[in-house]
């Protein structure tokens, strides 16, 4: 794919970027590998923390400029971009502050003299998506650079200005050359990097197809991969959930980032016929009232989706859903104005044999289910191939805690849509991928948990006290 800014609100091409030449690609890899060997793997944790904190500081001080780049690259609402950058900065600060503790050697209980150290692996390749162009990078750069790894980043081809800006932030924050390298690379070049012995691991956030391709390639070379893929998060609304707060959460959960979030509320499942209709009417009113406009205008409530293809794919999904018996009770059409705008859409009667039943709706389209029992809700929640996030809304917190364990997902939130915070491990199961980002688990994905076991000089071999 060509790297370019095609503004989704105006449909105009604003900037083009050259794909890297092969020699430049291999040179970037060599520089990164040398920087790992000679500089970063030997650096003090406090040195890494200082760079991370400085990037966070720069992000905050230049937040409006950086947010505007995301608006132009992928059409995000300016207000949402500000929120994303605040979260990205908070993630970098978290690892800057907690890195020392998270990386500290841990004595092995019950075996005297044994310690597990957390050491870096080397050059890690990160392939990242466009939907949260700053946050996705912070999720990888925070833990991996703090652990002492260095990063080669292939960002999505439709967010080149954000990609270049992030690399520039690291450079200005004092990161030595080769620690964080942005690559305007092709898919073939990504494959070549994975094959190279100097790359020690690969992480991809994106679609199932891209994930499978990258992970298969990495596995052939016996390299570890982490995959953060798609989702079709259910939101189960039980009979005692308060109406107004639940609606507010459902609207925010579905519409954040114009619905283009892996953990968006893509399926709402309400228990109880009468309440189901009440919630449906409220969602139709709330989503139907959102006003489209210029994404830079803080008053705008509905932005464009990221590309013409994204819009066409969503319209095709709506058509296929209708053809298989679903009802379009709100929206369903392109908005008649420049830009890739889609009406907020609600689909009902999406039965088990409807292809949309188990597909991801990556935009402002909600599948709405009304059921009689909690068991039916759970069945629908677990019926899809994905298992990323999920949510339960109820006043009975003890019951919710039990029900949460029955949902097949990597994360369940109670009385809140799935979201992200620096401390919370993020990731999924099933076709949503494997591995975790953020929190303590995130810094443990690409490290050597190295055991060092020290016995006193003159110890006998295989002493009885240490048999086994
Ligand atoms: P995508 O097409 O897979 O793109 C993601 C990244 O992978 C881009 O950098 C893309 O590069 C690259 N890529 C695509 N095919 C590749 C291949 N064969 N080999 C190597 N790299 C490849 O994903 P998308 O459709 O733009 O993004 C939306 C998907 O990502 C949704 O399913 C969403 O749920 C998921 N997502 C998951 C998470 C999570 O944390 N679980 C977070 C955000 C998004 P180009 O841009 O150059 O094609």
Question: What amount of the residues lies in strands?
Answer: 15-25%
Main sheet: which strands, in order across? 12-13-14-11-10-16-17
* Bound chemical compounds: NADP nicotinamide-adenine-dinucleotide phosphate
The major sheet is characterized as: 7 strands, mixed
Quaternary structure annotation: single chain
Q: Roughly how many Å is the radius of gyration?
A: 24 Å
Shape: globular
Derived structural class: alpha/beta
Helical amount:
40-55%
Number of strands: 20
Distance between the termini: 55 Å
Instruction: Please count the helical segments.
Output: 14
Mean pLDDT rating: 97
Query: Which stretches are low in confidence, meaning pLDDT under 50 for 5 or more residues running?
Result: none
Task: Give a written overview of the molecule.
The protein has 468 residues and is an alpha/beta fold. It is 40% helix and 19% strand. It is built from 14 helices and 20 strands. The longest helix is centred in the N-terminal third of the chain and has 26 residues, at 78-103. The site of NADP nicotinamide-adenine-dinucleotide phosphate has 30 residues, from helix 7, strand 8 and helix 8.
């Amino acid at each position: 794919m060509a790297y370019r800014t095609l503004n989704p609100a105006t449909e105009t091409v604003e900037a083009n970027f050259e794909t890297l030449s092969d020699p430049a690609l291999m040179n970037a890899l060599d520089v990164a590998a040398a920087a790992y060997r000679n500089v970063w793997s030997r650096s003090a944790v406090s040195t890494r923390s200082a760079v991370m904190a400085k990037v966070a500081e720069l992000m905050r001080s230049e937040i409006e400029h950086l947010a505007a780049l995301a608006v132009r690259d992928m059409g995000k609402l300016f207000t949402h971009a500000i929120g994303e950058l605040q979260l990205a900065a908070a993630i970098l600060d978290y690892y800057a502050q907690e890195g020392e503790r998270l990386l500290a050697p841990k004595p092995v209980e019950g075996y005297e003299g044994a310690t597990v150290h957390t050491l870096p692996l080397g050059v890690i390749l990160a392939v990242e998506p466009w939907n949260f162009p700053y946050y996705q990078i912070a999720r990888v750069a925070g833990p991996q650079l703090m652990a002492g790894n260095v990063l080669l980043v292939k960002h999505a081809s439709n967010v080149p200005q954000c990609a270049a800006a992030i690399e520039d932030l690291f450079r200005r924050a004092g990161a030595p050359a080769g620690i964080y390298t942005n690559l305007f690379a092709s898919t073939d070049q990504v494959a070549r990097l994975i094959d190279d012995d100097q790359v020690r691991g690969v992480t991809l956030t994106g679609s199932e197809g891209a994930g499978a391709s990258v992970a298969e390639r990495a596995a052939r070379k016996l390299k570890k991969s982490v995959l953060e893929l798609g989702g079709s998060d259910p939101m189960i609304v039980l009979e005692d959930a308060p109406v107004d707060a639940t609606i507010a959460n459902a609207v925010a959960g579905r519409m954040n980032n114009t619905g283009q979030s892996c953990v968006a509320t893509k399926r709402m499942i309400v228990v109880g016929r009468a309440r189901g209709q009440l919630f449906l009417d409220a969602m139709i009113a709330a989503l139907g009232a959102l006003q489209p406009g210029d994404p830079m205008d803080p008053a705008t409530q509905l932005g464009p989706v990221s590309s013409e293809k994204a819009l066409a794919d969503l319209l095709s999904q709506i058509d296929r859903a209708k053809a298989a018996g679903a009802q379009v009770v709100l929206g369903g059409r392109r908005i008649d104005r420049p830009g890739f705008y889609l009406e907020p859409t609600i689909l009902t009667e999406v039965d088990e044999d409807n292809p949309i039943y188990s597909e991801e709706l990556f935009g402002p389209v909600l599948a709405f289910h009304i059921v009689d029992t909690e068991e039916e809700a759970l069945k629908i929640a677990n019926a899809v191939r994905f298992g990323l996030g999920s949510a339960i809304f109820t006043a009975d917190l003890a019951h919710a805690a039990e029900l949460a364990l029955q949902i097949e997902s990597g994360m369940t939130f109670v009385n809140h849509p799935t979201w992200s915070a620096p401390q919370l491990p993020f990731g999924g199961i099933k076709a949503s991928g494997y591995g975790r980002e953020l929190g303590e688990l995130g810094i443990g994905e690409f490290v050597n948990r190295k055991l060092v076991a020290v016995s006193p000089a003159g110890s006998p071999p295989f002493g009885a006290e240490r048999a086994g």
